[in-house]
Amino acid sequence: MSGRVVVVGGGVIGLSVAYHLAEAGVDTVLLERGTLGCGASRATADVLRAYFAGDPVSSALAVRSLDAYRDFAARPGAALPMRQVGYLVLFTEPDQVAAFEAELPAQRAAGVEAELIDARRARRLNPLIGGDLPLLAAAWSPQAYVSDTAAIVEGYAAGARRAGARLRTGCPALDVQDGRVETPHGAITADAVVCAAGAWSAPLARSAGVRLPLPEPVVQELLVTDPLEALPELPVTLDASSRLLVRLRGDRLLIGMGYPDRDRAAWRAGVAAQLAVTYPSLSGIRLHTAVTGARDASPDRTAFIGHLPGPPAFLYAAGFSGHGLCNAPAAGELVRDLYLGREPWLDAATLAATPERVG
Questions:
Q1: Is the dihedral of CA 186, 192, 196, 202 positive or negative?
Q2: Higher per-residue pLDDT: 85 or 293
Q3: pLDDT at 334
Q4: Is the pLDDT of residue 208 over 90?
């Protein structure tokens, strides 16, 4: 059996890493400061998608991850719902259309199924779109599913435990020095440490000599409407200009739009105003908090995944910028392969925290 690896972070990324390492025969311990999935993994829209505009590397991670999720969902007895709804991005400015067309070859090379559709077809896909919205065109990708983040967290946790990983909750990693991880319950010595602590990754990585330029933890909030009557089936829909994202959740709409600032009331008012512009039939609908959770974000919105060889080795997987659920299976594979010295399926140098990326 390989030497001990300590994974710091019990969200969907850390759990995927622990699962893939343990399944490969690595003696693995995971440390989580709270409960499993209590950070960014708690504040997702439960959407699995492949297309990430302007970021074909994240798209490649997502395409591979979608394959893994589909394989898991197809297993007998699997409890992972995957309802295909598609992903629609609304373009109201000519430069948005031009940017989509310019990057489309790279997206398709990453395995993304996407096309530019006209405004009429976009309104057929989402009939809530207002007739006065100056919609020029839209991006359409059928590779988007509504799933269940809690089921994914539990699935990875159960799989990691079955493979022999030990998952310790209520146990934050306070410091990492030369393979020694300090916790409130004592130190753990490891051959390698994996930092997958989400919004708390930067100081932990810094203690190991790695600079991850992540901001202080940012609170993500998703809102939900009151129950609505006779809602049509809708794709996950993003307005490219405002970043207003909506999807169906039962008889309500789940809504996101960037990150609230300190004035949450003003942010909510802005969401309500934009909702009325994009979807006039929803003007005046009451909005309520659905979920909140801390998010990490890299400067270029692409994850940092890399490896400082040891012994002791230090690996990191952080800065997923809200893409973690969509990227988790592929990220776990990458970290496993980097630790074991295997040839990864993706050129990991594109994800490393190099001077060019961290500035």
A1: positive
A2: 85
A3: 97
A4: no
pLDDT higher than 90, residue 256: yes
Using 50, 70 and 90 to split pLDDT, how confident is the model at 279?
very high
Residue 54's H or E segment, with its range, is none
For the question of whether the overall pTM of this predicted structure is more than 0.90, the answer is yes
Query: pLDDT grade, residue 3 (50/70/90)?
Result: low
Cα 192 to Cα 2: distance, rounded to the nearest angstrom: 11
DSSP state for residue 280 in the 8-state scheme: G
Nearest to 179 by CA among 315, 306, 352: 315
Rg (CA), the chain: 21
Residue 193: other Cβ atoms inside 10 A: 30
Strands, DSSP E only, in the chain?
2-8, 26-31, 47-49, 83-84, 87-91, 115-118, 137-141, 144-146, 166-168, 175-177, 180-183, 186-189, 192-195, 218-225, 236-239, 244-249, 252-257, 287-295, 304-308, 313-318
**DSSP β-ladder status, 87-91 and 236-239:** parallel
Query: Buried (b) or exposed (e) across 241-265, using 16+ Cβ within 10 A?
Result: bbebbbbbbeebbbbbbeebeeeee
> Which residue from 313, 295, 228, 243 is spatially nearest to 274, judged by alpha carbons?
243
Structure token pair of residue 147: 């799933």
pLDDT at residue 226 above 60? yes
Q: How many CB atoms lie within 10 A of CB 189?
A: 11
C-alpha 125/C-alpha 10 separation (Å) is: 37
Smallest Cα–Cα separation from 275: which of 285, 288, 264? 285
* pLDDT (0 to 100) of residue 42: 86
Amino acid at position 194, single letter: V
Q: How far is CA 55 from CA 300, 305, 309, 320, in A?
A: 9, 15, 27, 12
CA–CA separation, 78 and 23 (whole Å): 18
pLDDT at 78 over 60: yes
Coil, strand or helix: which one is 117?
A: strand
pLDDT of 2 > 50? The answer is: no
> Phi/psi of residue 203, each to 5°?
-65, -35
Amino acid at 317: A
H or E element at residue 262:
none
Q: Report pLDDT digits (tens) over 116-131.
A: 999 999 999 999 999 9
